Input
Amino acid sequence: MKIQPANSLDGTIGLPGDKSISHRAAIFASMATGKTRIENYATSADCASTLDCLRNLGVEIEQENSTIFVSGVGKNGFIKPIKELDCGNSGTTMRLLAGVLAGCNFDSVLTGDESLSKRPMRRIIEPLTLMGAKIESANGCAPLKIHGANPLRAISYQLPVASAQVKSCILLAGLNARNKSEVRSPKSKVRVPTSRNHTELMLRYLGAEIEENYIEVENGFVQKISVDGNSRLAARDLNVPSDISSAAFFIAAASCLENSELVLENVGLNPTRTAILNALQSFGADIEVLNRKEICNEIVGDVRVHGQKKLSSKVTSNIISGDVIANLIDEIPILAVFATQIENGLEIRGAAELRVKESDRIKAIVENLRRMNAAVEEFPDGFRVGKSALQGATIDSFGDHRIAMAFAIAGLFATGETEIGGAESAGVSFPGFFQTLSGLCR
Ligand code: S3P
Output
């Protein structure tokens, strides 16, 4: 895929459904009683992996473009799959389904592609084992052989990392446990969720008993979320907002391309996901939210961006670290590219989790920025990027969708042509990305 420099990004468009919310919608609808219509279900390869696994567990799913109809089987109505469940590249599919399968009275195997087979799974194996499931793994990695049990033991579990996937895995297993299971988040400075909370919002929407409170500890708060194992889910139609993580590529690009006038419609604006908008605004991006409303317990709205010639930062520190990192973890690749366009650049710290995503994203960001002639320094838990005049280069996506898309945006800012190697990986979250981008570029 070849990218040419652009002058602006112009247009009004809708984007595919949110990946995190789509996975949850399909899984929870399968665990509900009754038929669910899900609109704007993500077109991503990851979310197709989730549907494929659910079908192999005996769930009937019909699809008409981005609308899907799921015939729920109830929280323990799944049937033993006759083959391995292939999660493809999708960590969310594997970690959430592990929570569901732990509470099913049969054995099953979750597999994934080369990248997913290297990602850490001990973080879910440990709590699920405490709950009474037996899980065999290849040294803490996939394939995972799950020997489920029902009912599971309720636990009270302290998360070692601020991970929505691990939290969700335990809450889903908790639906098949006796009594209440509880997940405690790592300490945060303010009284807000430390990771995306789509699971809690959607489970509650479907009728599960979910309680959430905060305990005050030294210098901060710990969030406690509990789920009652006696909860039942009832089918209710769901509407998936556009994915803010996909929108972020266009928002960041339009912010620094003068004369851009871009409107992205119906974007998910859950506060656990909007840290990227706050970060871009704090570095001077002109972003407005219009038509804010609530749909299925999630906040959505239209995002309008006016491009500017020069961004003027509203902050004194160009370091991002601490609690906010978990809430913009997927947007760090595009933030790194954006940083090449701002006065004083940007330093990201406390983001070692980036090393265990679809690729080692710290390495991928640093390597590719260097190829484009940017000033960049690597740290074990982050990097520093200086304001840089980018030069077109050949990029290695490392098979990672967000690296491919972030560096396509870098190509718009660069002089000369940029070639994205492994561009097809964008399909993991956004199959039409390059077409949408070329339709917006002027
Ligand atoms: C996700 C949670 C995050 C995120 C991933 C999607 C989810 O991962 O990076 O892309 O849908 O719950 P972690 O839970 O590992 O932080």
Remarks:
- The longest helix spans residues 19-31.
- The chain has a mean pLDDT of 97.
- Residues 20, 92, 163-165, 168, 196, 329-330 surround shikimate-3-phosphate (CB under 6 Å).
